[in-house]
Design goal:
- There is one protein chain.
- With about 100 residues, the chain is an all-alpha fold.
- About 75% of the residues lie in helices and about 0% in strands.
- It is built from five helices and no strands.
- The chain starts with a helix and ends with a helix.
């Protein structure tokens, strides 16, 4: 697959009907960031404030790990591109 095709597939995931199965993206990443922050504080006694863009960046790292440890799976790379777009969007929200 060509490089742009990974990005095109990721964009289709981002603009497709994921909301009906996964809920609102911003709300979901905000909730995940709160859950991860509270988990780390409770389980690891770590004062960490995970924000929604951190969640997207860490999901990229999860996909990187899977691509290194597992067999080639194009979905890992499509998801990385998608999470990068989400991370950029969430990080830039404060700039508007």
């Amino acid at each position: 697959m060509k490089a742009d095709e990974f990005c095109i597939k990721a964009a289709k995931h981002l603009t497709g009907d994921r909301r009906s199965t996964h809920g609102d993206m911003e709300e979901g990443f905000y909730l995940i960031s709160n859950l991860w922050s509270h988990y780390l504080m409770s389980a690891k006694n770590a004062e960490v404030d995970v924000d929604p863009s951190d969640v997207a960046n860490m999901m990229i790292l999860l996909k990187v790990a899977r691509s290194v440890v597992g067999k080639y799976n194009e979905d890992d790379y499509i998801d990385m591109a998608g999470y990068a777009g989400i991370a950029g969007f969430l990080a830039s929200e404060g700039d508007d």
